[in-house]
Amino acid sequence: MQDLKKELTVQARTLGLTVYQSSVDEAEGTVCAIVRSPEGKRLAVLGREAARFAGESRDALLLCPLTVDNARELMLLFPYTKPQSHRGRPFSFGLGDRLGLATPGHVRAISGFDVFPVFAQQSIRELKLTGRSFSDVIAAAAFGVFQEGYRGGYGADGDHLKTEEEITYALESGCSMITLDCSEHIDTQASSLSAEAAAAAYACLPEEVRGHYEEAYLGKTLPILGTLSEAELHRIVLTFWRAIRHAINCCRHIEKTTSTPVDFELSIDETLTVTTPEEHYVIASELAAEGIRPDSVAPHFSGTFEKGVEYAGDLDRFARDFEVHREIAEYFGYKLSLHSGSDKLSVFSTVGRATGGRVHVKTAGTNWLEALAVLAEKDPALYRRAHRFAIEHRPEAERYYHVSTDVGEIPNIDLQCDAYLPEYLRMPAARQTMHIAYGLLLAQPWFREAFFRLLDRYEEDYYARLRVHIAKHLRYLTGGMKQ
Fold this sequence. Notes:
The chain has helices spanning 2-14, 68-77, 103-109, 124-130, 134-148, 164-173, 195-203, 207-217, 230-257, 277-289, 315-332, 345-355, 366-378, 380-392, 394-397, 428-436, 438-442, 445-457, 459-479; strands at residues 18-19, 25-27, 30-37, 40-47, 56-58, 61-64, 91-95, 116-118, 120-123, 156-161, 177-181, 263-267, 296-298, 335-338, 359-363. It is of the alpha/beta class. α2 (68-77) packs across α5 (134-148), α3 (103-109) packs across α5 (134-148) and α6 crosses α9.
């Protein structure tokens, strides 16, 4: 079969195509490789199963566009390009790729680390803002994995899904992980009620709900917590009982929808207040009583986890709070998950040390910001236009993301030389402004077309930036892990 691999390489070069040598692989009498043509990247196919793919014949080679349908055939032929569950892998890391170009850089970034990557990770909000589908996201990850010859396994996360319909969509598209966002079923006002008002509101809940929680938790000595007061239980039930019921229903829906192993993460971080250990325990206990053990749970930790900037808060308090949540997660048998992990380097040693490397961390916008850094270096004029656009349209972007920096803190870009432009992406206010403007910018033809052409031309520069930045995250996380 080595001769067939060689034949593909020779024929591709004869046609003036550049072969990504790490991608050349064979299965079922068929050789495939990612190649670069004047029209862009293609999947070159040669051999017995070539007819499974849709493409254009060039002599004996079939040159196929990197479409969703061709990605599905690739996953059938080479199963390592298909998303899979990360169960049994203690350390997993989410790498949301909003552009569909970052996976090769992410593959290089995780080299040398014992980590399971979730290369395909998107929320419904991100899909709408980028005009993509879950199938698009997974296809891009599959081709990126194949381009690099990566065989270590990866996941696809339908992130922050809220309904059974969204879950079905993600599963049917091939997602191997579901992150359930219960925020629409959480009563965020209950925590601000007085004890008397909370008791009155609690008394209005269905009798069977009150009876269930009182029998399960009042007058009991609970592991880790000790005892719960009536007032504490009132607030917890008022805040979360509908969310718990929704989570149970969604888990049952996943079980009915697919027989393939799916990682289930429960997100309870979309609240106005920090998740207390008592809240975390009751939620986990209710799921356990239904025979449900999530693979990971994301509480709302103390401090501030804003997009694209460092953690803000008391690191000592974070460490204390995180340790209690870790004990609860360990007791119920799942991992903690840390959301909005991009650039939160100051907390990573604590996270790694406390969990011993049994944790899930999510990053998202980092790959977009590193792409902008390439843009600032290679096409200063386009970056300047994008920068001005993002500042002008930031109020619109803030409809989707909460950030606290002020555009008034951003120095006038007209006063700076081209060489200085990458520095803007290190300034919190400018970094956040560009971070949350991705959907608005990608919807502008003047930006989108030139931007993707540039990243295609400078793909190695982009991969190199991703490798350095993501590896820094992983180095700090694993540096704190107990050996």
